[in-house]
Amino acid sequence: MSIWNNIDKIEIGGSRDRFEAGEHLVEVLGVEMKQSKNPSRPGAVDAICTFKVLTSETHKAGEPRSCSFAVQPDPYNYGKADVKALVAAALGLDPKAVDPRVMENATGPAQSLKGRQVLVRAVESKKKDGSPFIKVTFAPTGAPASMAPSAPSAPPPALEEKPFPPAGWAANPKAPGYYYRYVNGKAEQLTEAQLRAL
User: Fold this and answer.
1) Does 127 fall in a domain?
2) pTM above 0.70, yes or no
3) How many C-beta atoms lie closer than 10 Å to residue 72's C-beta?
4) What tens-digit pLDDT sequence spans the chain (198 residues)?
5) Is 133 part of any domain?
């Protein structure tokens, strides 16, 4: 049985403390799954995601970054939500379209995220107890690095519907019908109708 079997029921959220505050454009180098050695998490797997920084407000271009997410077999955990958010952003998918097959292709031998670009937004925040942390969200950027066109492509036909939500926007899992994005470290939230009217 795959550790991703219930992934379609998991809502994405924000990860913590994976990058320094700021916006970072990264390329995914790979995702490695390793059995966790933490005795307090029996059956857990660590999803180790490796990135190369392309542009950043705080990290050097070319700098490698690695994030480890604890993925547990229980019905819900933050590690699964974090990896799902990364997969959805890297593949440009609606998180609801991310199913076990998509997760297996992303984290298994197929490595479907390799070479894809992701926008990482890291914002300073505070926990309920007041202690600081950095909230990290992943946003789609468009074509993967290896597939980006070298010359501008022709504009789409006039009747073609624009993708929704627009790049950089994500559904707010805690407020159905609302979408959010971060601009210069500040959250912006709109209803679906407001976003479609832009």
Assistant:
1) yes
2) no
3) 17
4) 677 877 777 777 655 556 888 889 999 999 999 888 877 777 788 888 999 999 988 888 998 988 888 887 766 677 888 889 899 999 999 888 999 999 999 999 999 999 999 998 888 888 888 888 888 888 898 544 433 333 444 444 444 566 778 888 888 887 777 888 888 878 888 887 777 777
5) yes
Residue with tokens 């501008």: 152
| Non-local CB neighbours of 169 within 8 Å, separated by 6+ positions | 139, 179, 180, 181, 195
Number of domains in the chain: 1
